[in-house]
Amino acid sequence: MILVMNYKASENDINKAVKQLEEWGAKTTISKGEKKTVIGIIGDKKALLSKPLNTLSGVEEVLEVSAPYKLASKEFQEERSIVDVNGVKLGGSHKCIIAGPCSVDTEEYVMQTAIAVKKAGATMFRGGAFKPRTSPYTFQGLEEDGLKLLAQARAETGLPIVTELMSERDIDVVYKYTDVIQIGARNMQNFPLLKEIGKLDKPVILKNGIASTVKEHLMSAEYIMSEGLKDVILCLRGVRSYETAMRNVLDVNLVPYLQKLTHLPIIVDPSHAAGKREFVSSLGYVGMAAGADGLIVEVHPNPSCALSDGDQALLPKDFDYLMDKLSKLESWNQEEWYDMDTNK
Ligand code: PEP
Ligand code: MN
Fold first, then answer.
1. Across 102-254, where does the E strand assignment appear?
2. CATH number for the domain harbouring residue 30
3. CA atoms of 261 and 234, how far apart (whole Å)
4. How many domains does the chain have?
5. Do the domain assignments include residue 26?
6. Do 168 and 279 belong to one domain?
7. Cβ of 102 below 6 Å from ligand 1
8. What is the value of pTM for the model shown?
9. Does the CB atom of residue 101 touch ligand 1 within 6 A?
C-alpha cells in the first residue's frame, strides 16, 4: 500500500503522516520524487485497514501496489533511482563501468589492473576476496588480505570498490573495506543474508541466480529494500539454459523489460555470460546498447596466471577497445520510447 502525497504537501505533513502511520503500527519508507512524495507501507497492514488514511493532511490518494515487489516497483517510484557511490553515480542518465579481476591475487596485478582500467575510463574497481567456487579444492580468495589490496587500489586510483560478500559471517570485514557489496548469483536467494545487508548503508549489486526468473530477482531486491536499504542495483549475468555453447545465456532482453517493472538501476555482466574473452566485449556492447546503466567486466593483465576466471578476463588493451566503442554508442532509451508510444 502507498500513500501518494499531493504536490502541496509540506515536509510537516509528510512527517506527521509517517508518525501517525507508525503509531498505528505500520513500517514506512519514503520515496521523494521531483513531482511527488510517496510513503510506502511495508509489512502487515491489517492494523491499518480500519484507519482513515486518506484523511491525513497532504494525502492525495491511497493505492494498493499490485506488484509483489512493492518498493522495487515502478508503481512505488516512477523516476529511475540513482545510486551515488562516493560521488560516482549509477542509474538515470549516469552510466558506470565497473572493471577489475575476478579474484584479487597479487599486489602487482591488482595495482596494474586498477591503474589500467581507470585510465581507460572505468568508474569503479571490482575484485573478489571471498570467492564462490564450484570446487572446494580450488582457490577460495585472499579474504581480508585481498580486501586490503582493494583498498590500496582505491587509494591509488580513487575508484570506489566492489567486492562480493558470501556469508553473514563476513559482513563486518567486507563492510569495513568495500564501497559496494556484491551479492553473487549463488546467493541471490540467501534470504537471511539479504535481510542483513538490507540493514546496512552500503549500495548492493544483486546478481540474478543461475536459473532465476525476473520476479524472483525482483523479490530478492525487495528482501533487501524491505529492511530499509534503497540503493540496490540489479545485475544480469546470464542464466543457465539448454544451450551450452557459452558459459551462460545473456538475457539482454531483460534490460528494457526490467526497466518497465522497476526503477532500480540495471547493469550487465558480460564476463560470466560469455565465459570466453573473445565474446565478452560484444556482449557488453549489446548490454549497453539495450539501455543498461552500466557493466561489470573482468580484466586481468596476465589471464593465464589469474586464480579464477582467466579464460574470460579481458586484457587491458581489450578493455581499452571496448571503452572506445562504448564512448561512441548511443544506448537505447526505453523510457523515451514509452513516451512516444501511445499504446504504452
Ligand atoms: C564474480 O563476479 O566473480 C562471480 C562469481 O559472479 P557470479 O556470482 O555472477 O557467478
Ligand atoms: Mn568471476
1. 124-126, 161-164, 180-183, 204-207, 232-236
2. 3.30.70.1140
3. 12
4. 2
5. yes
6. yes
7. yes
8. 0.95
9. no
